[in-house]
């Protein structure tokens, strides 16, 4: 049996599958309700990415974390709606910053309606997330606001780049902790907290989510270099072509700076060149795929996934714990 998730997550228990599927269906309905407006155009823009689908990774984690308490508690589904609305809102803003043309297989909001509408729609989703959050109590509001601060800080740090003397790899990992890890951690925290799980369990799952979120993004970095579009459906080298710094490229730059090998320096120059040229782009991909920097990025991904798995050790054995462990394995598998 499988549940809807980013990796076709397998579960071994019919009751758990039913709980998660029911919860995710309720989240989907909640997302559609939360993105409705009295103004039809706003509804269309706000539901643009909701209807495009997506992994629903964060709501899935809310549902699994809620299994350590009462998964039917009234705050579980609304909290999952909050984290997914927040995530969707950041995508609208990210696409403006990155000048992206496509998101989830459809034209990005900024391509379809322009940057101003895209930014304002993201703001609308943040407002709707806050409205739902208010019903979950002041502690939930505080947790979400702290996570959102970390998320925005991570985005600012990414835009600003590392300060003088700061290791770019360490800076990048800090950025991912804010941009990705913070909201994934809150997903696990909300699921456990809203279900009434013990505080120790809430803390364990929060730390698990932080590490899993970073591992998930690092796996995407590796996939950007290694993916076969025919097998994965992901076009290789998108981030590379757009000049977005990813971990394999950062490791390459560090190696070139440290050892000065001509082939490394030359590859860095190619990466920094015009990668809109298909032949140059293909050459960079080919050379990166055989470079030790890629293997180092894989090792970093595995390290974060293993740290996430290790965090689960104190939790009682059961189908929910096994599903969370399998997510760690799936992240490692994605990274090859």
Low-confidence region ranges: none
| Biggest sheet statistics | 2 strands, antiparallel
The helix content, as a percent range, equals over 70%
Radius of gyration: 20 Å
Quote the distance from N terminus to C terminus: 24 Å
Number of helices in the DSSP assignment: 17
- Overall 3D geometry? globular
Give the percentage of residues in beta strands: under 5%
Structural class label? mainly alpha
> What is the number of strand segments?
2
Give a summary of the structure in a few sentences:
It contains 17 helices and two strands. It is mostly helical. The radius of gyration is 20 Å and the shape is globular.
Structure overview:
The protein is mainly α and 336 residues long. It contains 17 helices and 2 strands. The radius of gyration is 20 Å and the shape is globular. The two termini are 24 Å apart. Strands 1-2 form a two-stranded antiparallel ribbon. Helix 8 runs antiparallel to helix 9 (168-194), helix 10 (199-226) packs antiparallel against helix 16 (292-311) and helix 13 (247-259) runs antiparallel to helix 14.
């Amino acid at each position: 049996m499988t549940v809807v998730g980013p990796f076709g997550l397998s579960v071994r228990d019919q009751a758990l599958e039913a709980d998660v599927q029911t919860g995710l269906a309720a989240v989907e309905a909640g997302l559609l309700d939360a993105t409705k407006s009295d103004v039809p155009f706003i509804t269309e823009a706000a539901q643009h990415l909701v209807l495009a689908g997506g992994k629903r990774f964060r709501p899935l984690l809310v549902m699994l974390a809620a299994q350590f308490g009462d998964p039917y508690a009234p705050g579980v589904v609304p909290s999952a709606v909050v984290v997914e609305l927040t995530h969707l809102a950041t995508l609208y803003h990210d696409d403006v910053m990155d000048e992206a043309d496509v998101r989830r297989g459809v034209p990005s909001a900024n391509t379809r309606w322009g940057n101003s509408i895209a930014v304002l729609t993201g703001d609308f989703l943040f407002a709707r997330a806050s409205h739902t959050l208010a019903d979950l109590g002041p502690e939930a509001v505080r947790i979400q606001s702290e996570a959102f601060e970390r998320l925005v800080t991570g985005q600012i740090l990414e835009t600003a780049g590392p300060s003088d003397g700061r290791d770019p790899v360490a800076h990048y990992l800090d950025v991912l902790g804010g941009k990705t890890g913070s909201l994934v951690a809150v997903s696990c925290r909300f699921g456990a907290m809203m279900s009434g799980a013990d505080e120790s369990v809430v803390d364990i799952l929060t730390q698990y989510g932080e590490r899993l979120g970073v591992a998930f993004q690092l796996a995407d970095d590796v996939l950007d270099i290694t993916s076969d579009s025919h097998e994965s459906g992901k076009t290789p080298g998108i981030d590379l072509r757009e000049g977005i710094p990813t971990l394999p490229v950062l490791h390459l730059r560090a190696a070139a700076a440290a050892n000065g090998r001509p082939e490394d320096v030359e590859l860095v120059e190619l990466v920094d060149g015009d990668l809109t040229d298909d032949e140059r782009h293909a050459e960079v991909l080919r050379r990166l795929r055989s470079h030790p920097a890629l293997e180092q990025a894989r090792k970093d991904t595995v390290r974060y996934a293993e740290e996430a798995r290790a965090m689960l050790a104190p939790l009682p054995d059961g189908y929910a714990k096994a599903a969370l462990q399998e997510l760690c394995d799936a992240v490692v598998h994605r990274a090859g």
